[in-house]
């Protein structure tokens, strides 16, 4: 890699914020080893791993990977590791392995070598190779991110058909497949043990939906209307349990104007949420 | 903004939109004051686009709710054959999402993602809503007021169920697993039919060829 | 069938279709023997339609699975305002993992971890599998039989690419031996990573060439 390429890459890196601290994009990484505790975690989050951190340390000194300055880099790297330990951050094993590798290289370079062993591999070579290899993919991943992407940079064209008298065939689904899918996802999530899903009868879930459906039609429904005495005791209990679940989940509310007045069920009060993203959208991002 | 650019934006928006767009909606695409066209400009552009469809397979039609591109009736017999073929199968992601909505209703998208460990695409939800197997039953009163999904009567009808109670419970599922090991679909990567290397041929089809040799 | 009519049918079908259509699929729209165009006729019509998009807001693009009308990237800022949902952003970990799978396929998770120096989370792989950008192409015959991952046609389609060849090129490895002869880097063929990328042969087929190497 030539020096020119090196400089232009550094410029590029300078323009992109590598972290956002309290809403402020940070384009320049902290210069010295002191990093405010709050920022450290974010700082480390900015790195994809020990190779990424090493690359950063090398680039910060405007050095070519090929002339890997093992002494300084090892020292810097160790300082970061120490700092992480001080902050009692959970150290990823990969960072420690890299520290050990750097220490080994350093010690081998320090030891005087007999002349006949001069032909032996430079201990830096393997590390340089890995750094180069990682850097290539780091770069190409950035390039791939820039490719025009469906639904981000370009959108599919969907022109309607002139007539609508056709019925579009829908895929058929076997109930067995739905059950199998559920079984599978639950097994994967290991929910059997931790969440006691098995103890929650399906009928309560269904009743929760039915209660909500009634509220969908009317916003304000009298408590007793949810109960059908003909269902017997167990049906009433199931409905009651469903209501309790919904109240617990802040989906519905009970309202009573005064003591002994009829109790009404209504959808829970809409809070002021205008400035917040929908929960599912946050997860989606 | 130049006329050409304005025309291209309006054309692309109308073609990409799911339904018709009216002039107000088109004006909303321009956020900066200085680039915002006048209604008359938009109307002029729409007239040009209508004229440009002359003699083509699609036309820009004005309907009650705005403007929309649609295929011309002349080409309909051929275009309709696009949908003659067999419907595709639903993805595993869709079936898992459906099953979670059925068994754990009412449930939010976030909760589904929590169990599945991956994000649920809007398309999956949309397909299920369109099929009317699920519906929005309400909203959870937490920040963002996410929609709560539940299953519908149509879902029960489709699978010939009278109530959800007829679905096997989790305990029964465990037994079912032992009795019918064929129901266990296993991890997706274990699927044998995927254990092949696909090769894209000239015609754009994927051909399955033998597994790639690897050197050790 | 007149050329104009054929062109209109193809245009309307491509615009009405949900995704891309290839030539075989387009040919299926013509049921009567006497009206069935030849492949060459279809190709000619497609070329005309591509040319007619010149300077417009949409383009007819050839991608891995066929031809697709899509909006031009130039109009993206305005067209994107049609939807409220923000496009999904992908993490660096996901993009780096995806790049390694695409450029070095077939590749195991262990091999990805070797290059990246950190473990690859199951979630990342799961997300990529679910998006159907990658798939399991086989298993490496080493202890544990780890899955070998490769990219799919859907991946190419999503990024509007026809073949893997159109991907941004991977930077060349600087030649350590030449610039630093004092670093004895061992066998030169270990540096030859270019052989990992799929290569398009004369016939237009993609072949994954070069066995997957592991370094120890």
Describe the structure.
The longest helix of chain A is centred in the middle third of the chain and has 23 residues, at 124-146. Chain A is elongated and about 95 Å long. In chain A, strand 4 (252-256) and strand 5 form a beta hairpin. In chain A, helix 3 packs across helix 6, helix 4 (70-86) runs antiparallel to helix 5 (93-110) and helix 9 crosses helix 10. Helix content of chain A is 53%, strand content 6%. Chain A has 285 residues and is mainly alpha-helical. The two termini of chain A are 36 Å apart. In chain A, the strands form 2 sheets. Chain A has a 3-stranded antiparallel β-sheet, with helices on one face. A two-stranded antiparallel ribbon of chain A has the order 1-2. Chain B has a 3-stranded antiparallel β-sheet. A two-stranded antiparallel sheet of chain B has the order 1-2. In chain B, strands 6-7 form a two-stranded antiparallel sheet. With 216 residues, chain B is an alpha+beta fold. In chain B, a hairpin with a 7-residue loop joins strand 4 (134-139) and strand 5. Chain B has helices at 3-16, 23-27, 39-52, 76-79, 92-104, 109-116, 122-130, 153-158, 170-179, and strands at residues 58-63, 66-71, 107-108, 134-139, 147-151, 197-200, 206-209. Classes of the chains: A mainly alpha (285), B alpha+beta (216). Chains in contact: A-B, A-C, B-C.
């Amino acid at each position: 890699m030539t020096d020119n390429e090196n400089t232009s890459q550094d410029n590029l890196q300078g323009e992109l914020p590598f972290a956002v601290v309290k809403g402020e994009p940070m384009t320049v990484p902290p210069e010295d080893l002191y990093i405010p505790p709050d920022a450290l975690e974010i700082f480390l989050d900015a790195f994809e791993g020990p190779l990424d951190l090493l690359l950063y340390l090398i680039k910060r000194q405007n050095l070519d990977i090929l002339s890997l300055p093992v002494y300084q880099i090892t020292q810097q790297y160790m300082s970061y590791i120490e700092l992480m330990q001080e902050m009692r951050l959970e150290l990823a094993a990969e960072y420690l392995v890299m520290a050990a590798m750097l220490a080994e290289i350093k010690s081998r370079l320090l030891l005087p070598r007999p002349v006949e062993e001069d032909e032996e591999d430079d201990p830096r070579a393997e590390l340089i190779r890995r750094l180069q290899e990682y850097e290539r993919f780091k770069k190409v991943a950035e390039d791939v991110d820039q490719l025009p992407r469906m639904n981000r940079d370009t959108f599919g064209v969907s022109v309607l058909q002139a007539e609508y008298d056709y019925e579009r065939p829908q895929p058929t689904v076997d109930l067995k497949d739905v059950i199998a899918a559920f079984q599978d996802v639950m097994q994967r999530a290991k929910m059997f043990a931790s969440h006691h899903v098995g103890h929650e009868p399906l009928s309560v879930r269904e009743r929760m939906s039915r209660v909500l459906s009634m509220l969908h039609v009317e916003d304000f429904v009298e408590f007793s209307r949810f109960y059908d005495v003909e269902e017997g005791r167990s049906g009433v209990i199931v409905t009651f349990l469903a209501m309790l679940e919904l109240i617990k989940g802040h989906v519905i509310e009970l309202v009573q104007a005064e003591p002994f007045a009829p109790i009404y069920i209504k959808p829970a009060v809409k809070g002021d949420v205008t400035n917040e993203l929908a929960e599912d959208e946050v997860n989606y991002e | 903004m130049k006329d050409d650019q304005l025309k291209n934006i309006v054309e692309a928006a109308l073609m990409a939109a799911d339904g018709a767009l009216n002039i107000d909606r088109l004006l909303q695409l321009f956020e900066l004051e200085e680039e915002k066209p006048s209604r008359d400009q938009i109307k002029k552009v729409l007239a040009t686009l209508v004229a440009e469809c002359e003699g083509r397979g699609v036309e820009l039609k004005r309907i009650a709710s705005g403007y929309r591109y649609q295929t011309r009736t002349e080409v309909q017999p051929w275009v309709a054959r696009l949908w003659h073929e067999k419907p595709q199968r639903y993805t595993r992601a869709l079936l898992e999402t459906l099953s979670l909505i059925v068994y754990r209703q009412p449930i939010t998208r976030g909760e589904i993602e929590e169990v599945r460990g991956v994000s649920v695409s809007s398309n999956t939800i949309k397909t299920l809503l369109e099929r009317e197997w699920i519906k929005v039953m309400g909203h959870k009163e937490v920040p963002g007021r996410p929609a709560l999904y539940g299953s519908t009567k149509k879902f029960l009808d489709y699978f010939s169920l009278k109530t959800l109670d007829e679905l096997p419970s989790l305990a029964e599922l465990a037994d079912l697993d032992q009795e019918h090991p064929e129901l266990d679909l296993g991890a997706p990567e274990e699927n044998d039919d995927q254990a092949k290397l696909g090769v894209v041929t000239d015609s754009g089809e994927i051909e399955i060829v033998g597994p790639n040799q690897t050197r050790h």
